[in-house]
């Protein structure tokens, strides 16, 4: 059977791993590139209009992309 000391070590180890995973997730989330920037650059190259399918999610999410700002003016 597992002793109290082994259970304590296991709890400390798993808790530490969970905290490291949370910190890693937030680090990756903060430093991730936005999809809106990539979509805007692709639309400028292709010359598509502001009524494309990518304009709807950006406006619905309340994001401020180049398409959403120009449509609001």
From TrEMBL:
Entry-linked Pfam families: Ost4
Keyword Magnesium: no
Topology in membrane: Single-pass type III membrane protein
GO BP annotation list: protein N-linked glycosylation via asparagine
Compartment(s) of residence: Endoplasmic reticulum membrane
SUPFAM superfamilies cross-referenced by the UniProt entry: Oligosaccharyltransferase subunit ost4p
GO MF term (any one): transferase activity
Transmembrane stretches, start-end: 7-28
Compositionally biased spans, kind Low complexity: 47-73
GO cellular component: oligosaccharyltransferase complex
Family: Belongs to the OST4 family.
Protein name: Dolichyl-diphosphooligosaccharide--protein glycosyltransferase subunit 4
């Amino acid at each position: 059977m597992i002793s109290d000391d082994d259970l304590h070590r296991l709890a400390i180890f798993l808790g530490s791993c969970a905290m490291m995973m949370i910190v890693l997730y937030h680090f990756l989330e903060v430093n991730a590139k936005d999809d809106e920037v990539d979509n805007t650059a692709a639309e400028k190259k292709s010359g598509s209009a502001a009524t494309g399918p990518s304009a709807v999610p950006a406006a619905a999410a309340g994001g401020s992309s180049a398409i959403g700002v120009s449509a609001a003016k």
